[in-house]
Amino acid sequence: MHPKLIASIALSGLILATPALAETAAIPKQSVNEELRARLPEKIRSEGKMISVNNGSFPPYEIVTGTKMEGASADLTDALGEVLGIKIEHATVGGLPALLAGVNSGRYQFAFGPVGDFKSREESNDFVDWVQEFVVFAVHKGNPKGIVSLDTSCGQRIAVMAGGSAERVIQAQAEKCNADGKAAIEVQSYTDQPSSILAVRSKRADAFFSSQAPLTYFVSQANGQLELTGVGQKNGFDDLYQGAVVPKGSELGPVLLDAIKVLMDNGTYEAIMKKWGLENNILKQPGINLGGQLPK
What is the DSSP letter of 30? Predict the structure, then answer.
């Protein structure tokens, strides 16, 4: 069976579980903030919409089926659209490089993400950070390969998202393993989360190294096949912030920042984050370009 079809089937199984989550909280309708709407770029105001681009499913933030998106990011962008008095639509591309290229070319106005914010990425983009994240491993139940940290990943098959910061960290660890005379890491790079987690479930990979929030979600939907390891460790990262992405110097960034503050102040942000089991990723205040150095 074709890998993309397998991933699609696997994701469909995950989507079946989302209504139970979605029924746990009612999200209040927002009033238009005319001051913020007036600060939007004129083209966006005149068209009454803007497009947020994603690079495929990133549960529980972004759960993409066809042209439809669900998840915390979908709920938050719906609320943001109401605050700004516009409609926010969603488009999907393949991989983070394509996402960033689409934003910087002007094809899409922004990516709500959340996308990892690092100083090197801030050279070309501004980040409106609205969550804090951690990077851990999803492994087979019982952790038969004993993968609990970067040091224990030598000699293992590790799945990562292509173009992401976790890929860079695991590649650096692979070089360290070689330099220390240890068995090499087989780095498996995938363009989306479902393909990555499927590689572990089908035992083509020993672990998936990625953000804790989506991995927690995938593990909860894996019928007891998987578990998390490396929780509470740095795993090659310092404080990790994620957020929306706009072109460098875009006037849209400060508008998004203040719109997110509105949702935080009125309790909508917290309600949506809790609805999707993201209590541990809540930020008290959003910020622009809070990220640190990309791990070397």
Answer: P
Q: Is 185 left (phi over 0), alpha (psi -120 to 50) or beta?
A: beta
Cis peptide before 144, with omega less than 30 degrees from 0? Answer: no
Q: Which pTM was predicted?
A: 0.78
Four-point Cα dihedral 109, 122, 197, 25, nearest 10? -60
Tokens of 279: 């209590």
- What are the residue ranges of helices labelled H in the chain? 3-15, 18-22, 34-39, 42-47, 72-84, 96-104, 165-179, 193-201, 212-220, 252-265, 268-275
| Cα distance between residue 66 and residue 211, in whole Å | 23
Residue found by looking up tokens 């492994």 in the block: 139
Count CA atoms within 13 Å of residue 34 on its CB side: 0
Cα–Cα nearest to 80, from 19, 128, 24: 128
Walk along the chain (296 residues) and give the pLDDT tens digit of each residue: 433 333 443 444 443 344 344 445 678 899 999 999 999 999 999 999 999 999 888 889 999 988 889 999 999 999 999 999 999 999 999 889 999 999 999 999 999 999 999 998 999 999 999 999 999 999 999 999 999 999 999 999 999 999 888 999 999 999 999 999 999 999 999 988 889 999 999 999 999 999 999 899 999 999 999 999 999 888 998 889 999 999 999 999 999 999 999 999 999 999 999 999 999 899 999 999 999 765 55
Dist. CA 167–CA 175, nearest whole Å: 12
Closest CA to 116 of 101, 129, 99: 129
